[in-house]
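so my prof wants the structure for this chain in the tokens format not the other one, which i didnt know existed until like an hour ago. anyway here's the sequence
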Amino acid sequence: MSQLCDLSAFFRVYLFSFWGISQFLLKFICIFSVLAFESLNIFNLAEEVYRVMESGMKRALRVPSWLATGAACALVGVSALAGVVAADQSAQAAQIDAVTGAKITNTSTPAGPNYVYDNFKLELTFDTTGKAVAENDTLNIQLPSELRTRSASFDVTDTESGGVALRCTVPAAEGPEVTCVFTDFMATHVNARGNIVLVADSVKETTSEVLHATINHSVDIPMTLDHGSIVKNTRGFAPETAYKYGWQLHDGHPERFTWEVYIPERSIGENTIIINDTFDSSYGGYRLFNDESSENAWQRTHLLKWNSLEDFKADPSHERPAETVSVGGAINGGIFQMTDTENGFRVSFPNTQGDAYYLLKYYTVLNVPANAKVGSTFTNTAVVNGQKAEKTIAIKTAGWGDLDADQKTTPTPEPTPSTTTPEPTPSTTTPEPEPTPSTTTPEPTPSTTTPEPTPSTTTPEPTPSTTEPEPTPSTTEPEPVPSSSTPEPQPTASTTSPGPAPSTSASLPPQKVLARTGSDAALIGLSVLLLGISGASLIARRAQ
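here's what i got, hopefully its the right format
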């Protein structure tokens, strides 16, 4: 930028010193713009835009011809340069095809069968060995349409240093796309290999025993379901005494919770059913969410009634109650009443002394929404005619991951040869005196004995040392997260000890790394230097 400013100042000086230099500069800008646009293969479009802009300036603004020509060239040239820069920046990130396998596990009913609204854990393995990965490169994972997640963000960290290698985000949706972005961790590491774990729940039936994820919108990753396909639960959970259930919403509002109170009429002898519900004050506490808007009408407090225990069991999704009553509505010849208390509320309605089954359903919202973060827990306690029922909702992560990577090695620079000529070292040897010539020639005495040298060659042998460290695998089992969409999920009572689920990891070959595209840095520099040569040819044509 400073060089451009210096260049601009240079031209301004000569603009006032030499008449007509401004026209020369404008021609120079236009000529260079031609070259820039030709390199982008959009010269015809640029030429048309140039003609329209020049004509408009001449007619509408009534500016001099040379000024209109120059301004049109400059504007078109700057637009081209902005496009080049933007294209270069957008081309920096690449999609990395590095997923090598995937496995799905039912954490609600590990021994089967797989029911709608069960919780599942997805484990994806990846390996970037031999792939060029840079900061801001992405790994995109499209989940199967049969699964649903809640909104979350999580990091994939290095097991040795704890450094964050990927930052992942997942929206609250059915079949969402999880986006993981590589950080500057990859500037100092290579050959990253690890796993990404996602938590989701099923939302629909399927006749297939295989679910499919898609990596980077192109690579199919099959995941085999243990114990067959996903089916509807035909027998709902129906406790014979008061029971409390709850979960965090999946609709993009993590600060809201759904609560249910199960009430079997046969367990209550009084003429009036009374529920005293107490809220938890931890992490700022929560309050009833009875929004009056039509959009949130489904989240208002209401009472559902089935005429018998068997009717309730036959409706596991709670879609076919005999009656649905809002606060203040009529039920059993009386009124469904609800009043606020200091730390919760009180509900009452008549008891028919029969076999009816009731479900009180209401929603709460955190007083401090920011506290809906991993690690926070919220408890709710209901006392139904002396029967105590309690449920704690723990905020858990929807995903996590870890990896191992190799540290990049810094190449050792080669030594630079010295060009300095060494100075000679003076000799301290005493010169031998020259012999005095003699006129007498002595006879030599021959010697016939030549001593032979005894060579000694002993080469020590090196002792190699090779030690290969063994990696330590790391596995984490998440706790299931109940579902919350309409129709509502059902808790599952299980008395059978689940057996170990066999591994169904699909081993896939590593995918090719997508080629990086982008403008050459030289093109940008050239565009800055020549911002408008493009019009010279145009000006020349117009002059002709």
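also thought this was worth mentioning. Residues 180 and 213 are 15 Å apart (CA to CA).
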